[in-house]
Design brief:
Helix content is 48%, strand content 19%. The protein is α+β, with helices and mostly antiparallel strands and 169 residues long. The protein has one domain. The chain has a three-stranded antiparallel β-sheet. A three-stranded antiparallel β-sheet has the order 5-4-6. The longest helix has 18 residues.
Length: 169
């Protein structure tokens, strides 16, 4: 996601958190190794490659002799899960970037802008020149003959949450 778009998305997410009154709640953070394990990735090369290629910036908390530790907020983990899933499904980086740009933070959280539960699906459609990524509410989605890939974002989120919980035990 381009930096200016990411800043706008963060501002929208901040406004959403303020509206819901949950800004004060402490969100869990996950170490890079925990995230890599949950996604089934190497802790060094692929995770770092995803971070650099798709412009994700983990938080850096504390300082140590070897540098700072990278921590990921849940939204970052869900976005990495989306990227990892599409990579394992064989998509090239341009298509993944298109999909990553189409998916907003509230889509990954499974809520609409008012905070109501809203399961969503990511759909890739054949276009005249390139595939187009679209996000639909799961209840209103109607399959089209142009559609060739569908990913239920709520299932992706729930799967990564289960894996992170399993790894923490």
């Amino acid at each position: 996601m381009p930096r200016h778009t990411r800043i706008q998305a963060e501002q929208q997410t901040d406004a959403m958190l303020d509206r819901w009154g949950i800004r004060e709640l402490e969100q869990p953070h996950f170490l890079a190794g925990d995230v890599a394990n949950a996604l089934g990735l190497s802790t060094t090369v692929p995770l770092h490659k995803f971070i650099v290629r798709y412009g994700l910036e983990p938080e850096r908390l504390g300082k140590g002799r070897q540098g700072t530790r990278r921590y990921f907020a849940p939204l970052d983990v869900y976005r990495l899960a989306l990227i990892a899933r599409m990579t394992s499904d064989g998509f090239v980086s341009d298509v993944i970037e298109e999909a990553n740009d189409a998916v907003q933070d509230d889509n990954l959280l499974g809520v609409d802008r008012e905070g109501n539960s809203q399961p969503t699906v990511l759909v890739l459609q054949r276009g005249a020149k390139a595939p187009a990524a679209r996000v639909f509410g799961a209840a209103s989605y109607k399959h089209s003959e142009r559609d060739y890939y569908m990913l239920a974002l709520d299932e992706l989120r729930e799967g990564i949450n289960r894996q992170l919980q399993k790894d923490r035990k």
